Amino acid sequence: MKVIWGVDRTNPKTIKFAEAGATVILNGNNRISSNALKEGCRTSPAISRKLIIGLLLQGAMGGVACESAEFGTQNFKTIMEQEGIHHLLSGEQKVPLPSGKEKTICLLFSANWSRPCKAFIPQLVQAYSTLKETGQELKVIFVSFDHDENGFKEHIKGMPWLAVPFDVILQKTIGNVYKVNQVPSFIPLDAGTKLLAKDAVGLIKDYGADAFPFTKRRQEELKALDEAKREGGNLNELFANGIEDSFVYGKGGKICASDLVGKTIGLYFGAHWCPPCRDFTSQLIEAYNDITTDKDQEFEVIFISTNRDFKEFELSISKMPWPAIPFNSKTRQDLSRIFEVKWIPSLFILGPNGKTVITNGRELVSSYGARGFPFTEAKILEIETSLMKEKDGLPQQVKDIRHEHIF
After folding, report:
1. How many C-beta atoms surround the C-beta of residue 364 within 10 A?
2. What pTM value is reported for the model?
3. 1-44 residue pLDDT tens
4. What structural domains does the chain harbor?
């Protein structure tokens, strides 16, 4: 596409949009002027107003028409005004569109028919409420991807933020502009600082209100904090700041993080619904009992449940001789994120200094049982060396008269 500065009224065919022949003219601020829009509609009557609006916003996002323009709240306001919509909804009331001067505005794309959306909304409500209570400047605007207005009305119940009036065509237009290809999506808009241009749903799920203001810098800071907890050796910081009674036993009783200082610790991530977890739990119980019978071997396992509900959690811990993170504790989710758990069962081993020793504890327990304790690389090398010596000491060939052939 060719770009021209200013409105050239003497040549209405100066700029063409390949698909529909739309005239698009930029002003000196690298924006498509309102005059240019009018000129484009008049000289290219076949082009729809929605297509020109989409083109305008494509350019504003850094597309071919306007590479230096920024992804911002002013662009969202523009598309709404061009669609003839000059208000948002706050419950039953109408409120003005954002001015573009707000510090942080995020678009929430969601739908009532989507189970992931229904699971995400309560998490976002909690984060939003926390941020509001602490005085943070944040506006969330809901853009419905529902199929009809009834779905929209049902989904908006309980949402404490603003919403775009329901319009199927408008939702598609906005979704295309911000490249939304799934719901839920949570898009932070640039409003003076460089915010994340990608979907921030994962950030909200992982960090909640701590993810604010959803910038790339904040994301890097949070990851650095996770790494420090994983490698720092401070159990109080790792286990929710050492809150009293942090861990519970299936048969009753509680301990806190300070009781684990100086011990080798196994962080066991698993769930009752997972058959491999049930098999590994039996192996780990056998190794645990063998290890802890020796008073000189300080070892403890902490169970971090990934069960779907409290009943499953209770079934999991009912036969475990070690403590677990309470089911309703956010620490369960935090530890799964900090140790980047990709599958279950998983067993991470922390040394007596609180630092991570190995991440493949499941494999070592399955292979060596209690013999592998304390599951350090040096111990595993010692075992492997011993096994090799045993193998070398065996005769290479054994003569068995039963295998002799008689002719």
Report:
1. 21
2. 0.72
3. 333 333 333 443 333 333 334 444 443 343 444 444 444 444 44
4. 1-69 (no CATH), 80-214 (3.40.30.10), 235-391 (3.40.30.10)
